[in-house]
Structures are given as C-alpha cells and as structure tokens.
Amino acid sequence: MRGFSQLSPTERRLLLEVFWARTSARSDLAGRLDFSKSKINAAITDLIGAGLITEIGPRPSSGGRRAEGLRVTLRDGLIAGVDIRATHMDIALLSPDMSVMARHCEPISVRGEPEPLFARLRDVLDLLLRQLGQERERIRMIGIGVPGPVDFESACLATPPLMPLWEGFSPRQALAADFDVPIFVDNDVNILALGTLWHLSRSADDFLVVKVATGIGCGIICRGQVYRGVDGAAGDVGHICIDPNGPVCHCGNVGCVEAMAAAPAIARAGAAAARSGESPRLLELLQAHGALSPEDVGLASREGDPAANAIIRGAGADVGRMLATLVNFFNPSHVFICGGVATIGPAFLASIRQSVYQRSLALSTRHLAIRPIPHPADAGIVGAGVLGFLEAI
C-alpha cells in the first residue's frame, strides 16, 4: 500500500474533501473540486485501492439513480487524539470520521517532569487498544495538544509558562520508539479550534476559540486553517497587558490578563473576599473545603452573593477588554469561549460580551457572535485527531 507521501496533489485534495464532508458522492466531489468526472473516478479508484477511502453504499436519492457514498477509512485504521491540559489528560482512539471508539480521562499535573506522564500515556493507549481488541499497528497517526507554546516543526515545547520543566521536551520523540506513525503536537487551544472547525463542518472560516482555565489562550482559525504564526506562538493572549499597574504574572510581566482573570486569580480573589468578611458565603465555602475554587466563587455568584458576583463580572470584563483588541484587529465571525472558568456561571460570559461590544468598533461587531464552544466535551480529542489527519497526509 502506498504511504501518504506518495499521494498525488489530486488524490490529496480529494482525500481532504471526503474527510471534511464525512461522506461524499463522486458527482458532489467533481462539482466542489472542479475536476472532470474521469479525473475524479481515476483518483477515487486509486484511493480505494490504497485503502484510504471506501464505498459505503448508495446515499439517499434526490431523484434518479442513487449515488454511491464515499468515506475515509485509512486502511481500517484508528487515529489517536490526546488532549493534555494543565490538570487532566483526555485520550481517545478515533475512527477516521472522528467517532470516539475508546476513551480515557484522568487528572494530572503538568508542573512536574514530562517523562512519567508520557509513560502513563503509552500505557493508556495500550489499554484502549486492548479494549478494542487491536494492536499498536492499527493506529495510523497521533495528534497531541499540550498547554504551552509549541515549535510546530520540531514538536518541542518552547518556554511554556505553566510547565517550565517541559522546556525543549518533544512529545513526538517520547512516543516515536513505541508508535512508528506520524505524530504531531500543537498548543491545546489550537486543537480546540480544529475540533470546533470540525463540528461546524467548516461553516465558519474566521473565528477565535478562547480558553479561560488555569491559563488563558486563543486558537485562531483564519480562512479555514489554524494560524500559528512564524514560530507557533500565535494566540498566547493570556500575556496581553490590560493593566500596567496590575499584579505580577508568572511570566514575569505585570498586568497580564491571565494574572487577573484566569482560574487561580478568581480563586485568590474569592479567598480574599472570604477572609476580609466581605462575603460570608465564600467564607462558609472556604471553611468547608479548606480552599476556594473558581467553581465555588461561581456557585456563590449564582446564589446572589454580591462579592462573588463582582469577582466573576470583573474577570469577564478583563477578558472582554483583551478580546476587544483582538476583535478590532481580526474581525472574526465568532468568538467561542471554553475552559473551566467559562462554565462557572452566566455572569462571566455576559460580562465578556458587554466589554467586547462596548470597546470594539461597530463594524468589527456587526456580525460577531460570542458564545460557548460547541461540543465542549470532545472538542479537544476530536481536534487532536483532526490535527493528526491533516498533517499526516
């Protein structure tokens, strides 16, 4: 069987089109790609022979003869999608249509050395393969998201603020000895953006995915593709300064939006309000749990606690100030909000919207929608799978 490197430009374009469309008919492909029927048929025959696509039977008729459907099969292989976050790791084996075949999620910390975590990742991949009765050879490609800047070409972490012990570490090299397949690594927000692009079926081509969690980052989809910048650092918006007199960030600068509105900042503000007597409800939660989480602050806010509500709204306004700059600069159709902080209550998203619309130019917001990310539960692992497929072929 031919490898991906042996695909002709026509075959590669056709394979990508079938992938994004989920299922396609020959006539549909010819129209979308502006290929002749003979060119399409020859390429399809070659791809079927290579085991990369398969015919799945007649599609529903719209009048006349029913067209034969086509779907990516990758020689009956699987794609591994790995979504590593600051506090948990989500691992899945996916079919080429991004259906989840097996999945495992567990809490982790990225503060320590990366090698033990990747030893665990190898064990989990083997566990998932055993659940499906498959061997390692069935995995055709691996996509990995990590919570830090990535030099995309080398697949190495580059000065990651949340995980300094990962500096120069290559997830690709860590897995290469056990999995002889294409392995690609990207920032976790970029894979969330790819997962969103997949779930939207490419109905939007220019949008932002903003994750507010332990850190704050942004995935940028520009003209239907992830924009990474020259060195892979595009979207590191958490270190945009919104207050030159603000607190010191772990990156060493002051007033970064991450230092003022990410999960640790919300928890600290909640603890301060509890200890000062400003919020009896937060003090009650602090005494019950021993420490406050952003979820605790969100709970108190939803219960009507004024201090907690002010903290949540203040964090949303801070994120909105940063986003207003991006909206004026990029003019996206959508800004999708995700991450643990995004789920703590409606006041957070409402404050983001208010701040963005107040501070952005009218033309930049004319068609702008700010909403939660679609399919948040699997956007990361699906995006990692999409990354693996797109880069491998």
From TrEMBL:
GO terms for molecular function: kinase activity. SUPFAM superfamilies: Actin-like ATPase domain, Winged helix' DNA-binding domain. Pfam families: ROK (PF00480). The keyword Nucleotide-binding does not apply. Keywords: Kinase, Transferase. Gene3D superfamilies: 3.30.420.40, Winged helix-like DNA-binding domain superfamily/Winged helix DNA-binding domain. InterPro entries: ATPase_NBD, ROK, ROK_cs, WH-like_DNA-bd_sf, WH_DNA-bd_sf. Belongs to the ROK (NagC/XylR) family. This is Sugar kinase of the NBD/HSP70 family, may contain an N-terminal HTH domain. It comes from Afifella marina DSM 2698. The lineage of its organism: Bacteria, Pseudomonadati, Pseudomonadota, Alphaproteobacteria, Hyphomicrobiales.
